[in-house]
Structures are given as structure tokens and as C-alpha cells.
Amino acid sequence: MTTGSPVLRFAPSPNGRLHLGHAYSALLNADLADRMGGLCRLRIEDIDPARSKPDFIDGIVADLAWLGLTYPEPVRRQSQHMSSYRAALSGLIGRGLAYPCFCSRGQIRARTASDSESPCDPDGVPLYPGTCRHLDVAVAQDRAARGDPHTWRLDMAAALHSAGPTHGYIAFDEAGARRVAADPARWGDAVIARRDVPTSYHLAVVHDDALEGITHVVRGRDLEAATDLHVLLQALLGLPVPHYRHHPLLLDPAGEKLSKSRGSQSLADLRQAGRTPGEIRARLGFA
Fold it and tell me: Glutamyl/glutaminyl-tRNA synthetase class Ib catalytic domain spans which residues (predicted)?
């Protein structure tokens, strides 16, 4: 449920330069916040220590300023708040809702590759078979204590039992609002903390949305399925559920979504080529 003035956010990851897809999402969030009489925050989601670079953070700030977008200070950087995510994770562990997983990606692939009927999550990845869920607790604790590399996985069955019935979330768009049912079970025992940091995108984003008072989450359609898992984590952590809007993705001429990893033309490239903020806004429908 949302109360008070609407609060939205644009939350890029600094693992590359922003492209037109990011610009569309940033402009849409700013436009909706303005029309709703609220505000839009900027958040830097830099939990990935290998891919997040200071130069990319500087680039994000420069690109958004070039587009004419301003945000309230201070801007939250997730890498500076690992203790908060660790506390949230510890709470789930203490309630028996998460367990350490010592399986490598290669081991998981090997265990699921032979089963052509293995169910997959919404991203098309075979569901984790639960190998480490059945480890003796003392053995698992000993392995974790001596530093064996591990992630933390949500015990989905235990989590669903603890949370009780999930009531989904409110999705909104220009046509109005509607209730959407959530099915977090389709994610299986999802990773909620990586090997290198005590969190994951899923855990950090629901924590920060609540902390920053986000009432309306507007993001790409590629994250729509993840909202089911987020609704469950919100229930487990006692957090409010924002309203959600998942906008269409911008595609390249080959029909693929724009992506930093695919080398999509960046806003910096467009700026260097002489494009103006007004041209970018008009091209994206925000003239």
C-alpha cells in the first residue's frame, strides 16, 4: 500500500555507460513523478565489486545531468551499506529461511544437464535441485565458518510457509491499476546473497525501496517476473509493497534489447556525435 506523496526511483548499475534504454526509463520515472506530484530518487546499484567502476558512476551522473534530470541528495550507493543487507540476510538465516549453498555454477549445470525435463525459472535457468538444502546444519555451519565459498539461497518451501498466502501486487499504467497475482515458487531456491557480498539484487532492492520510501517502482519488463520474488521477500521482511509498472524495452535493429554488454550505442556516444538532450527526449517520446 502507498501513502503520502509518491516517491519513484531510477536505479542503474554502474557496469557500463547508459544507453537509450536507460534514458527512457530515467525520463519515464521523472515524468511520472512530476505528473503524480511526487519526487524521483537516484540510486546507484553497485553491489557487484567486479563490474562496478567509479568511472561508470561519474558517467551516469554526467549523462543524467545532460538530459536535464536532477535528484535529491544524498544519492544512495548500495556498496556503502553492506552491513544493512547483512542484517536482513541474518534475520532470514536465523528464522531457518535461508541456507548456505556450496555448489558452483558448473556443478549445478552438470546436475541438471542430463535431465531434459528439469524445470526452469522465468529466466530460463534450470531450477536449483536443492542439493545443499539437505546438508546437516552442523556440517554446513562448519564449512561456512572455515571459508568454503558459498552463496545463500532462500528455502522457498519454508519461506512460503512462513509468509503465508501472497496477495500479489498492484500494477499500474496509463489505463489504470490492477492487482496481479504473484507466484514466487517458480523461482525455486533463489540466491539471495552472492559469494562475494552479503546480498543479491533481489534482497538489496526490496530493502532499499522500503528504506527510501519508494511507493511506485517503474522499471523494464525484463524484471517483471522478479517482482514475484520481491513480493515474497517483502512479506518475509515486513516491508511495504510498492505499486509496480514494467515498461517495454527498447530494441535494436536485430530485435534484441539494448544492452551494455552488447555494445549498444551509449548516451556519451550520442552526445559526442552532436545529438542534443532535446533530440533524445523527442526520440523517446518526452519532447
Answer: 8-269
Spatial CA neighbour of 152 closest among 107, 202, 106: 202
Q: Are 9 and 29 in contact (CB under 8 A)?
A: yes
Would you place residue 196 in the very low, low, confident or very high pLDDT band (cuts 50, 70, 90)? very high
User: Is pLDDT of 1 > 50?
Assistant: no
What pLDDT does residue 116 have? Answer: 66
Look at residue 260 in the predicted model and tell me its pLDDT: 67
DSSP alpha helix (H) spans, 115-239: 137-145, 156-163, 201-211, 226-237
Give the type of residue at 119. P
Residue type (1 letter), 243: H
Domain ranges, ordered by start, for the chain = 1-80+251-287, 82-215+222-247
DSSP conformation letters of 219-286: EEGGGTTHHHHHHHHHHHHT----EEEEEPPPB-TTSPBP-TTTTPPBHHHHHHTT--HHHHHHHTT-
In CATH, what is the architecture of 1-80+251-287?
3-Layer(aba) Sandwich (3.40)
Q: Residues near 216 by Cβ (< 8 Å), separated by ≥ 6?
A: 2, 6, 7, 8, 32, 36, 38, 172, 242, 243, 244, 245
Measured between alpha carbons, how far is 91 from 117 in angstroms, rounded to an integer?
35
pLDDT score at 287: 86
The C-alpha cell of 284 is what? 523517446
Read off the pLDDT of residues 82-94 as tens digits, 9 standing for 90 and up: 999 999 999 999 9
pLDDT at 263 over 80: no
CATH architecture for segment(s) 82-215+222-247:
3-Layer(aba) Sandwich (3.40)
For 130-154, what is each residue's pLDDT tens digit?
999 999 989 998 999 999 999 999 9
